[in-house]
Amino acid sequence: MRLTFNDTETAFAYKTNGELKSARFLFGTMNYSWFAALGVRITPFLMKTGLPIHGIIRATIFKQFVGGESLEQTAVVAKKLGEYGVQVILDYGVEAKEGEENFDHARDVFIQVIEYAATQPNIPFISVKVTGIARFGLLETLNSAPRLRSGIHDNEVEAVEWKKVWGRMYDICEKAAQKNIGVLIDAEESWIQDPIDRLSVEMMEIFNRGEKCIVYNTIQLYRHDRLNFLKMYHNIAQQRGFILGIKIVRGAYMEKERERAALMGYPSPIQQDKSFTDGDFNTAVKFCIDNIKDIATIIATHNEYSNLKAAELLNEKGIAHNHPHIHFSQLYGMSDNITFNLAKNGYSVSKYLPFGPIRDVIPYLMRRAQENSSINGQTSREVLLIKSELKRRAKAAKVKK
Ligand SMILES: Cc1cc2nc3c(=O)[nH]c(=O)nc-3n(C[C@H](O)[C@H](O)[C@H](O)COP(=O)(O)OP(=O)(O)OC[C@H]3O[C@@H](n4cnc5c(N)ncnc54)[C@H](O)[C@@H]3O)c2cc1C
């Protein structure tokens, strides 16, 4: 098999030299872990002070990781990705905006995004955060009250509020089903995840009928209980006769999860170390591919080994690279070497492309800054790849002269 992730010419064909140099500077800066940590701490505060920091953010980290502030701006980026056979998961970056009015507004925007996606050749999915349409405290209450897990609510206020959340998600999924667009429901913190899982399974049961998969839930394999959860979910799907839609990730809230568990004195839900996360992630991918008939999977990772392993498994089993139940995805602004080389080799692959006003996407940007700080090791790889491509281009330009 010829798939390799070292081909930087393919990886960065869509970027100019200027864009690559800006990216090199940004990743180089994030490589100073103290700087990234400081930025993550003070940026949300600075945003509130009214200091002219928007311009700096817009020209740097926002430009690297976000499609634009509006759908129109983002459409330009999506189109460009499409020219290279790369698809798009559109993500309206609304986080932590509470209030019923805001939740209804978010539902309306998600529906507009679905309508827009349906007019485009390369936007098969949108992503949704339940915290964009539900109060965090409500999810926390539902999560921690075992009596409510069954779906039986004995508190009238919560029951009414939950019904509204359910209705918003139903409206989004119903529109998506009409337009044949997939809805990927993000995984969030473990202390609000139970109601998200329940909502996801209820939507799947309604909309993932026949061969069609419209609704996907996300599992985070940095949690030690999620491999079993996947198997249980699969059983439920088989019993109830729907296609299981699963996005597989490692998980983005590790520090928060550990800190909260330590603070509140309960066992951490996170794996002992990274090798356990990696092991469960790759096993989950294999489990889904082994059950490809009734599980539709999004392999969402920047890990080269996991992507290669999954691609190899498809080849071994003689499964078409563009099988409708297998899709690869990386975040916009990261791991272009994986995305563009998978696309070149005919795999179904996308960029997860957030958009929204700067202040709304700050939590997302802070997670990217954290993930790309030198502590986590992603940055050095990005910098090396960019440097190597700039060198290759300079050499090619010399030969041309
Ligand atoms: C398309 C897409 C969608 C995503 N959607 C979500 C989502 O809905 N919810 C969500 O939470 N995240 C989501 N993520 C982020 C994802 O969970 C990871 O944070 C990110 O992709 C880094 O993991 P990796 O597999 O790409 O890379 P790797 O570099 O191989 O793995 C890094 C990850 O390994 C885990 N890890 C690191 N150190 C340890 C340790 N000591 N012990 C245990 N585990 C460890 C952490 O999860 C860390 O993020 C998404 C990512 C992508 C690409």
CATH class: Alpha Beta
Overall number of strands: 8
**Globular, elongated, flat, extended or rod-shaped: what is the shape?**
globular
Compressed to H and E, one letter per element, the order equals: HHHHHEHEHHHEHEHEHHEHEHEHH
CATH topology: TIM Barrel
This entry's quaternary arrangement is: single chain
Radius of gyration: 21 Å
Strand content: 5-15%
* Mean pLDDT over all positions: 91
Question: How would a textbook summarize the main sheet?
Answer: 8 strands, parallel, barrel
| Span between termini | 35 Å
Q: What is the CATH-assigned architecture?
A: Alpha-Beta Barrel
* Biggest β-sheet: strands ordered side by side in the sheet: 1-2-3-4-5-6-7-8
**How many DSSP helices?**
17
Unique bound compounds = flavin-adenine dinucleotide
Q: Output the structural class.
A: alpha/beta
Fraction of residues in H or I helices = 55-70%
**Which stretches of 5+ consecutive residues score pLDDT under 50?**
none
Please provide a written account of the structure.
This protein has a single domain, classed as TIM Barrel (Alpha-Beta Barrel), CATH 3.20.20.220. The chain has 401 residues and is α/β, with parallel strands linked by helices. The longest helix is centred in the middle third of the chain and has 24 residues, at 156-179. The protein starts with 7 loop residues before the first helix and ends with a helix. The protein is built from 17 helices and eight strands. The protein has an eight-stranded parallel barrel, surrounded by seven helices. The model has no long low-confidence stretch (mean pLDDT 91). The chain has helices spanning 8-11, 17-30, 33-49, 54-65, 71-82, 100-117, 136-144, 146-149, 156-179, 190-207, 226-240, 254-264, 274-290, 304-316, 336-344, 358-371, 378-400; strands at 87-92, 125-128, 182-185, 215-220, 244-249, 295-300, 326-331, 349-355. The structure holds flavin-adenine dinucleotide. Flavin-adenine dinucleotide (FAD) binds at residues 186-187, 218, 220, 222, 249-254, 270-271, 273-274, 277, 300-303, 329-331, 352, 371, 378. Flavin-adenine dinucleotide binds next to strand 4, helix 13 and strand 7.
